[in-house]
Design goal:
2 copies of one chain form a homodimer.
Chain A lengths: L3 E6 L6 E7 L2 E5 L1 E4 L11 H7 L4 E3 L1 H6 L3 H6 L3 H5 L5 E3 L3 H6 L4 E3 L4 E4 L6 E4 L1 H11 L3 E3 L10 H21 L6 E6 L5 H12 L5 E4 L8 H14 L6 E3 L5 H9 L4 E4 L1 H7 L2 E4 L2 E4 L19 H5 L2 H9 L3 H28 L2 H9 L7
Parallel strand pairs in A: 4-14, 5-6, 6-10, 10-11, 11-12, 12-13, 13-14
Antiparallel strand pairs in A: 1-2, 2-3, 7-8, 8-9, 15-16
Helix pairs in contact in A: 6-7, 7-8, 8-9, 10-14, 10-15, 11-14, 13-14, 14-15
Chain lengths: 369, 369
């Protein structure tokens, strides 16, 4: 049900183009997934997402568990039906949000007790609980419950790995639904031995896909590239690889060059809410007065609805007026930008031209620090 | 260019079905126009409006003059191009907003000086200024600058009428663009003699259409109906009649029965922002806990995108989570409801069945007070 087929591999890099079957459709990789935290990709109707060419969306277990509740979502026919998205969905395990969003949290070997960021109420997640919630939600791809440790504290990361690996085994044992793919998550911070150790353990369990967690959390770009370089030979080529939470354009390109197939990030919709647009090599802050009289579209070469219809001057006006349409139009553009980038990389891989494409694209971005 | 053709008139009432030519397309009347105050119908893309079947939108001169400025809109190719709406647009004169929104205002026979509700800066509108601004904006239908007085103060309304009529003559003299239709506005509060006197004066000037102003501003439903009944025989049958600012469903029906062709109102989008949905005979507040587990759509008989895809439980979740998609989906439904009502009335007029339709529809609403 979750067959992954490699269609083409790049000669000069680890990049691949693939095809992952899911119960709700095929993912053509490399693929970028926008995030629908609360069962909605912010400011986007499902029909808007289809029109953009979105194939996979991510939704957050932590948020949906707290509101509206995973039991309610199950009662309403599952997440696909609840949010009227009939394409593939991936849910995270809730672990990252427990560590990054909840008021207070107490971790032990069995799980995590935390306070809701909404009302301060107390809750407890364990590997078994995370899987049960994700089974109620009913996404196509579900994630193992893990700890995302501070990436540069060797001793902590090493201790945390033991826990994350034991939790993975409990997730595998707890999982019951055959129509969901459980992905394991490789942790290990910025340390080569820990990353390799984690990759060996996690990919030692036969799962339909593997994720790389704990990146894009404060480390440098160079550190991120190193981790991906170390992991590439250790992770099985025949399984999809998912780099969690990564969505800066240059990171997508660098990830694909290092063998990543799936990406997700809140960046395109978050930037939109802050009035910003992603264009090649730059972020435009539409609130800026220099756009007041600018009759040009965000990007004259972009084919998205926003760029085909509206000027920067209009977007500036909408942002200044706090109009909801600003969120809609900027989200449309920002998501399209990353989808189009993933599509272009896929085509370049198929055409054997990824090296040239990547070099051209990355020339618009600073050298990694 | 602004030919108005009566297609059918009802036998039992003053209702009519018509067709109004504009430079940006034909309006099939009765028609409801959603309001795009700041050059955007809140939370709606132009393509969403097209899909809903919107033919006319209203935009506000007061708001656009203050931000982004009518000169800028002209520089950007006019309002149609600026907001990417290629259908008919109507702009009001700014008068109503000056009286209802601005911080302080001082009215004299020549015009009104007022403070911006955005930054407190001082501005002055005169009939000539209002027309010049509306010519910069470039809507298909523009409105005469008038005063909307407190409707129940006879002496004030009578004095104000003199001013409104003199301002109308100045608007007619100031207007230069042949591709815009200037509508005059009948005022006169809730008083029969003043309304008739105003209608005679205003319709004595040959204009492509006439509006009825100063209603839905605090008078009772019965008073509104009386005013419409009095005006019906005085206003020329061969010209379109526009009832300004009216958008409650039962008011649309009562307006059509009394010969009104065009309506506009912020109600559908404002209700949406407050988490409410219009259904037959009722407003649903989606924030209400009773919708938490409600798997039904807002209205099982509605054909809008929202009702075809989403449950009340999902909308409840979106409203509680302050998600932008709540505004989008509720605005979609609320606008569709009024458009569909106008379409059904038009069909009923053409089929000679308006009396039955109106009686059935109004049976779901309280008797007018």
């Amino acid at each position: 049900m979750f067959e992954f087929e490699l269609i083409a591999t790049d000669h000069g890099s680890s990049a691949r183009a693939g095809r992952l079957q899911t119960p709700h459709g095929v993912l053509e990789t490399p693929v970028f997934a926008p995030v629908g935290t609360a069962a909605t990709v912010k400011a986007m109707k499902p029909s808007d997402l289809k029109e953009l060419g979105v194939s996979l969306i991510l939704s957050n277990t932590y948020h949906l568990y707290l509101r509206p509740g995973d039991e309610l979502v199950r009662e309403m026919g599952g997440l696909h039906r609840f949010m009227a998205w009939d394409g593939p969905i991936l849910t995270d395990s809730g672990g990252f949000q427990v560590f990054s969003l909840s008021e207070t949290r107490k971790i032990d070997e069995d799980g995590v007790t935390f306070q809701s960021h909404i009302d301060g109420s107390y809750h407890r997640f364990t590997p078994e609980r995370s899987i049960a919630i994700q089974e109620n939600l009913g996404a196509d791809i579900i994630m193992a419950f893990d700890e995302c440790p501070p990436p540069t504290d060797y001793d902590y990361v090493a201790r945390s790995l033991v826990r994350t690996h034991s939790w993975l085994e409990r997730c595998v044992a707890a999982k019951t639904r055959p129509d969901q793919a459980l992905f394991g998550i490789v942790q290990g911070g910025i340390f080569r031995d820990l990353r390799e150790q984690s990759a060996q353990f996690v990919t030692g369990i036969d799962l339909p896909g593997y994720a790389i967690g704990g990146l894009a959390v404060g480390e440098t770009k160079t550190q991120m590239h190193h981790v991906l370089d170390w992991l590439q030979p250790v992770m099985p080529a025949e399984k999809p690889r998912y780099l969690m939470g990564v969505g800066a354009p240059e990171d997508l390109v660098n990830g694909v060059l290092r063998g990543v197939d799936i990406f997700d990030c809140v960046l395109p919709t978050r930037l939109a809410r802050h009035g910003s647009a992603t264009v090649l090599g730059e972020r435009l802050n539409l609130r800026n007065a220099r756009f007041k009289n600018d009759a040009a579209p965000l990007d004259p070469n972009c084919g998205c609805y926003t760029c085909r219809h509206f000027s920067r001057a209009y977007l500036h006006h909408l942002v200044r007026s706090n109009e909801i349409l600003a969120h809609i139009l900027l989200s449309t553009h920002n998501i399209y930008f990353l989808l189009e980038l993933a599509r272009q990389m896929r085509e370049a891989i198929l055409a054997g031209e990824l090296a040239a494409f990547a070099a051209g694209f990355l020339s618009h971005y600073p050298e990694p620090d």
